[in-house]
Amino acid sequence: MLEILRRIVQEVNAAPDLSSALNVMVTRVRLSMGTEVCSIYLLDHTANCYYLMATEGLNKKAVGTATLQFSEGLVGQVGMREEPINLDDAPSHPKFRFLQETGEEPFHSFLGVPIIHHRKLLGVLVVQQRDSRRFDQEEEAFLVTISAQLAAVVAHAEATGAIDGIFGGTGSLTAKFDGVVGCIGVAIGKAFVAYPPTDFKSVPDRAVKNVKKELRTLNDAVKAVRSDIRALSEKASLTLPPEEHALFQVYERMLDDNALAGEIRRHVEAGNWVQGALREVVQKHVAAFEAMEDAYLRARASDVRDLGLRILAYLQQAKTLTAPIPEQAIIVGEDITPTIFVDIPRERIAGIVSLHGSSNSHMSIVARSLGIPTVVGVGEFPLSRLEGLQLIVDGHRGEVIIAPSVEVVRQYQAIIDEQAVLSKELEVVADLPCETTDGHRIKLFVNTGLMADVNISLQRGAEGVGLYRTEIPFMVRDRFPSELEQMEIYRQQLEAFHPAPVTMRTLDIGGDKALPYFPIQEANPFLGWRGIRVTLDHPEIFLVQIRAMLWASESLDNLRIMLPMVSSMMEIDEAMHLIHRAYLEVLEEGAHVQMPEVGLMIEVPAAVYQIRDFAQQCDFVSVGSNDLTQYLLAVDRNNRRVASLYQAMHPAVLRALKQIVDVATEEGTPVSICGEMAGDPRSALLLMAMGYETLSMSASSLLRVKWVLRKIGMDAAKELLEQVWKMDNAAVIRSHVDLMLDRAGLGSFIRPTLFQGSSSS
Questions:
Q1: Over the stretch 458-474, which tens digit does the pLDDT of each residue have?
Q2: 674 noted as active-site residue
Q3: Catalytic site includes residue 362
């Protein structure tokens, strides 16, 4: 049965269009099950009725015309119950509805199963026979399995627009697609599809006839691409900060003979023509990177693919980005790379939509630093039909709207106008302290990782750095940065914020963050080798980084060191030993530095239950709310299928946060929180009420959080928290907090007016 299923799925997936796929399905299912009829009814959600869209055994003239209302007949009953119905005498069932045009009167046995994709009912799959008998359990299980496969096909057709007009409608492409927020904000503009010059899949293998000629062709292409990269690098130096600019150095090194170029050369010498050799090498590296299911590593895979396509473009005399770029361009592509910010003038980029990627990809990080509304991970997007169409990028809810109506455009334009006015209004609190109406003081720190964050953070009144992500300088290189290179980078951050404290997190890789030159292959990377586990296993990496931090802090002494992903006392002891060793080394070498404060990140459930012991062994603790929420709820927030389950206001998350701050306070250990919760005025209000006195967030959130907290009294916040403790549902908690802020006249500071009253915002 499994082999039959595999063959059916292969044939269906190979079908040129939806109608052909449905016809293949009914033909093969009827044959495999030995039934007399197999039919597919699809649900038109607009008209709220089912259409007979394919059949083998009934009157084919009824296809596309025979309809049943949503609750009508046995088909409607299957859909309403969302479970199979198996009858040996269908006509005697009270819900039976005879469709004369189908010619189904001779058939008595009926088995119908719903076609459901991600909780959405798409239609009903039916088999029928003349004999009065119930289909057995194996037949029912087979049809349910087939239906699950069919659901993906129909959902893909619906998402890509292939189903448009199939029910006799107008065929309008207007549609909404869900993704993951890469950068908040709203953008309206014309779609500009960033196509690669060609697809590697179209490049065949060919026996080489003249190896020397092929190698000359390769050398010319590599030379041309190297020249292009250098030209792009010069342009990038004017628009991108140093950390992003370093990416182009990585590209150049990848073209060296000891990297991609050398591998391609060897494949040519082994007998494959240059384009085939290029395809082999690039696809091998891309597949290796993507197999790790790691956000940062996937970003590196797209860099390799981008570079390979540039070489291929010269080999095929192709040109990239030849179409005119609209002034308000929404850049759309399968996998947008950071080079797009140089290929296209920044002032023309209104928004970005990427089919792949995550909120942690390098492109998303750069987009946030440049303030470009971005949605990533948008599956089933109809790329081939988008060029020139109007799009709306909703970076608040992670949605993209294609060909919106005039009214929808008007609503979103109002949001853009509202946010522009609001941004101006928020500037008046930039130099004011974050103090509640009854005099309670909260420190607002910033999360950084890019030099581009520094100026905006200082302009918006950041009182220090609560989290500096040291992995980013590692990520944009093709090797581990030297001690001197790290020292220079860290020194820039420490000087920029001096005398305010700068909390540097030690190298945090693994999970959704990895380095292309230090791959970590694991079946479950989030529960694997990551954070402090990696650096303790490689003290040579850890010691160099700590030494660089210490040297960078000389004469400044505003450094704080923070350890990520700690789960045991043994890890703390080992890390402290290495930190003190590095400190003594730099003192012996002549450095004049103070021993910095050393803190821990509370990110895993084990740390929550050991918080008292941990607090006694460190100078401060900081809650990493993103990972803690993810681990407590067992939800990958970058996975579209379960992203809705990632709820920062889940009662379990709130109770864990309260336990952490209570115990740390009892031990006299300062406690802060970094992550998205700190940057959301709603949760910031609850965190303040719990006892958190330092919140660290992205620079873009600073003024909004400060404005809201300055308008609320601590007594009111504590009263709200007491009400929240009585609630057992994250959505209810969120709505309750929203209602309180709305009543205080602060609704527009937590979400655009259009989204007020919406639980999805």
A1: 999 999 999 999 988 88
A2: yes
A3: yes
